[in-house]
Amino acid sequence: MTPKRFVRRTSYSAILRKLAPVLISVLVLGIFYGAVSSMTASATDEQKKNLEATLRRGIMQCYALEGSYPESLSYLLSNYPIYYNKDAFLIDYQIIGQNIYPAVSVIQRK
Description:
The chain is mostly helical and 110 residues long. It is built from two helices and two strands. A two-stranded antiparallel sheet has the order 1-2.
């Protein structure tokens, strides 16, 4: 029979020392992924706010120069410098009345 002093046993601390770098790497990658996705969502929200403000300025500029609100979204986009990512945002433009500020909403596409 082999004496027990020559039998190698794996202790929990040895296993932990081998797994620690892997666990730390997974933790760091998880934190990095969370930070990047948070920044992406924040940037998209900021783009939406900027587009809404640009549309308001364009509508008011049209009213100031022409005396009436734009008759359609296509008229506003073709005559005033408003550029946006059509794949990321949808603009809902509805005329309420002849000389009433139109209902404009920006919808983020997924």
